[in-house]
Amino acid sequence: MESAVTTQLGLASSDLFADYVLTDARVIYYSIPKVACTSLRVQAAQLNGEAADLARPGRIHNRGQWQRTPKVSQILGTPLEAAATGPDWLRFVVVRDPVKRLWSAWENKFLLKEPWYLKLHPDLEPTRFPGGIGDVLDLFADFVGRLEDGHHVFDDEHFRPQSQLAPANGDPSLAPVEVYTIGQIGVLQDRLRAHVEARDLELPPLARFNEGVIRLTPADLPVELRARIEALYAEDYLAFPQLREEAGGDEARGLSADPIAALGTIWDRSGALLGLRGRVDELRRQLATW
Fold it and tell me: Following DSSP, what letter does each residue of 228-242 receive, concatenated?
């Protein structure tokens, strides 16, 4: 695990952190993928006066496109660092039960066959179309087994433990970071609204993105599979004890097979996109030889 850099003034910085310093609002947002990150990043971009077209989902995750919002590492050693450690700044991170987060990441990247991820990890592409929810859970269990075997996708930010992607606020020498679970988004929004309104700013509304096709809770998974995932992400539960409370608050939803038809449409679209990407790559290779 790459440790945070602790400066004399106490800000946390790491190459693994996706952090956003909102200078006008006096906010630092430590962002974790698959934890409402698209919604919160769009809100942060709007609050900090970034260009309107940055809010497009295809651009919001490209950190190089942010023009007005520095990273923590970019303000270390500057006068802004001292200000950003003060009590009038709000520093926060949002975390999510690792079981829910892993399901969301796997569904979004592999079950729904996101072309870029299939290109990066073709060996993780589901090869059989599920006949029902039971088959989907079998595919998910196969993926969990690949993580247990040490597959390198575990290093990807969408699958890496959250404790490695943001400060766990366990170091008393660091400026305090407020920790919210995904279930406390409403509480966080109230906190942010009061904070920015005290600075004569207006908090943009929080939009929803990346809704899943198959909704489930950890209670919908076999007990043995949940235990395996919890073991994989044991360090998250240690770093963020409140995740245990979030994990224990669910009841099984009694999933049906209704989403399977929609899944077939998505697989067809993904196949077409992969074919188009392959054709574009082939044309690029041909042009390079001319």
Answer: HHHHHTHHHHHH-TH
CA distances from 7 to 13, 141, 216, 248 (A): 9, 42, 42, 37
Q: In which band, very low, low, confident or very high, does the pLDDT at 250 lie, cut at 50, 70 and 90?
A: low
Share of the chain above pLDDT 70, in %: 80
Give the whole-angstrom CA distance, residue 232 versus residue 28: 29
Question: Under the phi-then-psi rule, with left for phi > 0, alpha for psi from -120 to 50, and beta for the rest, what region is 6?
Answer: beta
Q: Are 9 and 83 in contact (CB under 8 A)?
A: no
Quick one: tokens of 110?
A: 């592999």
User: Helix (H, G, I), strand (E, B), or coil: what is residue 12?
Assistant: strand
176: number of Cβ within 10 Å? 15
A 10 A CB-CB count for 55 gives 17
Write the burial class of residue 159 (CB in 10 Å: 0-12 exposed, 13-18 middle, 19+ buried). Answer: buried
